[in-house]
């Protein structure tokens, strides 16, 4: 029987690390203009480990040689951390070139109008031959848990260490990570202030040099460690702090959900002629134009922070009319286009309704449109639902903590399929007139607030 060694610390790359006590209480942010030109420049690096990933959950050994997507919790935690860091004025934001760190940084900084710059040497430590494996695989093969970091990576002050899995050793990683921080500092030669850096749990290996009298400890997902650079020297003033995240949780719970107003105007000449449009397009009828004018008056005083429209003319014209007095551009996106119906495009509605096939029944169903399978080369309901879901979720993530509403101009079939997918217990049937559906979005969840 093979003996497993008790992990020294919780897994940092393949699973979540449990937070350890911070070195200090939450650090007061450094004012951007703290020092004048005669004083020594001081920079504070807010080092944040990325949010939870699917590889963390699956206990995988994915380091610098691969990427894993953030889980919904990982995205939520990153956004909440952004709220918790709201009082910290950042002069810049950086991340490693791995997607999990880059996405975390953008979630933290959303609403700040700050571009995240990627630095290659901030990447996670490499697991070498063990990239993409499992902790249990290492334990079985070497008799040392994958959490026994000294066995696989050596020590931060031992550059001669040779890893049994050809992993990058701690010393070499620490040298390149510090080089990356100094590279960032060189990009801000005349500034004082706070800089966000999102990277990986292996930052703990580098930070150990400032904690030499303490056991090696891990970094929790979305924890904050603060490293100050002054007179060319680094000083660790906070380590593995999760108070910012807890503060963000409290603030997030107090916020109202984002309102997304979806507009559907099917009053077109082809509809009037009894023709199924799909992506086939036609001008609005007089009734369609009047509906636009009425909605324009109704929404004139509503504060919208963003407006999106399908690329089809009937939706874009509706958007232009309704948003005429709003000082924001209408952004067109093909993801908002109506379902493509293949050979059923421009077919008579009466002909399709008389069809006895399952596809025809689902096409005109309130609750089963998502099960529609195009008879020829059209778009299936599930694909259309996913398309709109992906778009609206991205909008929600972008504006969730903003003050204002988002308006989206789309089409009845794809909206119906989306509601089937995300709100399966809610029944919505497109009708022959203009409809306004208001959704609430919070923490990647949609709900219907109002239908008119």
UniProtKB/TrEMBL annotation:
This protein's record includes keyword Kinase: no
Species of provenance: Serratia silvae
Keyword annotations: Hydrolase, Signal
InterPro entries, per database record: His_Pase_superF_clade-1, His_PPase_superfam, Phosphoglycerate_Mutase
Signal peptide: 1-24
Keyword Hydrolase: yes
Entry superkingdom: Bacteria
Protein name: Histidine phosphatase family protein
Chain coiled-coil ranges: none
């Amino acid at each position: 029987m093979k003996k497993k060694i008790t992990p020294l610390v919780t897994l940092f790359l393949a699973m979540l690390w449990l937070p350890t006590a911070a070195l200090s209480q939450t650090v007061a942010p450094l004012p951007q203009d703290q020092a004048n030109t005669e004083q020594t420049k001081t920079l504070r690096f807010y080092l944040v480990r990325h949010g939870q990933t699917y590889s963390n959950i699956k206990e995988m050994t994915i380091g610098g040689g691969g990427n894993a997507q953030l889980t919904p919790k990982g995205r939520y935690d990153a956004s909440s951390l952004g709220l918790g860091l709201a009082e910290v004025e950042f002069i810049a934001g950086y991340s490693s070139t791995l997607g999990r760190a880059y996405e975390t940084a953008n979630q933290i900084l959303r609403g700040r109008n700050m571009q995240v710059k990627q630095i290659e040497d901030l990447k996670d430590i490499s697991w070498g031959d063990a990239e993409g494996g499992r902790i249990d695989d290492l334990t079985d093969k070497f008799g040392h848990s994958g959490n026994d970091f000294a066995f696989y990576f050596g020590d931060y002050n031992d550059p001669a260490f040779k890893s049994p899995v050809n992993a990058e050793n701690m010393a070499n990683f620490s040298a390149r990570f510090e080089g990356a921080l100094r590279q960032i500092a060189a990009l801000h030669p005349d500034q004082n202030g706070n800089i966000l850096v999102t990277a990986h749990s292996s930052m703990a290996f580098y930070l150990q040099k400032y904690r030499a009298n303490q056991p090696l400890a891990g970094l929790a997902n979305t924890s904050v460690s603060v490293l100050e650079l002054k007179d060319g020297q680094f000083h660790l003033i906070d380590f593995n702090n999760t108070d910012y995240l807890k503060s963000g949780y409290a603030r997030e719970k107090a916020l109202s959900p984002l309102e997304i107003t979806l507009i559907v105007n099917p009053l077109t000449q082809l509809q009037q002629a009894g023709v199924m449009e799909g992506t086939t397009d036609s001008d609005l009828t007089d009734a369609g134009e009047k509906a636009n004018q009425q909605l324009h008056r109704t929404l004139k005083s509503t504060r919208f922070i963003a407006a999106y429209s399908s690329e089809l003319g009937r939706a874009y014209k509706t958007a232009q009319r309704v948003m005429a007095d709003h000082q924001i551009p209408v952004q067109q996106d093909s993801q908002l286009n109506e379902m493509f119906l293949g050979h059923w495009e421009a077919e008579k509605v009466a002909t399709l309704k008389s069809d006895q096939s399952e596809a025809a029944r689902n096409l005109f169903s309130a609750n089963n449109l998502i099960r529609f399978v195009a008879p020829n080369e059209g778009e299936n309901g599930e694909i259309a639902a996913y398309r709109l879901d992906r778009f609206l979720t991205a909008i929600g993530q972008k504006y969730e903590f903003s003050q204002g509403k988002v308006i989206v101009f789309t089409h009845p079939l794809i909206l119906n399929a989306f509601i089937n997918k995300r709100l399966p217990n809610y029944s919505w049937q497109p009708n022959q007139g203009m409809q306004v559906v208001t959704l609430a979005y919070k923490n990647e969840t949609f709900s219907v607030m109002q239908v008119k």
